[in-house]
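Person: I keep going back and forth on a fold encoding question. Show me how you would write down a chain together with its backbone fold. Please set it down just below, with no commentary around it:
Helper:
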Amino acid sequence: MRLDKFLKVSRLIKRRTLAKEVADQGRITVNGKVAKASSAIKAGDELAIRFGQKIVTARVEELRDTVKKEDAAKMFTILKEERLEKVEPEFIDDEE
């Protein structure tokens, strides 16, 4: 199954177009490698998705083309959620 379709069906990301954009920006890794939206995933793969200042790591448990809202959470297991420290932009001192 394509990565972007899995993210939409599992409801990790609400829309497939948004899942594609996030993948194209390099914010998703599958088993430690940066993944494209078209990357094939299978049960047992580990996904790391960066949402702003948070990284969510999940394991793919099962693949289904359609799923009811109540059963969507069974498609993956959240392994960890970590917050990134906010990075302050460095100011450039202009010499006069």
The mean pLDDT is 88.
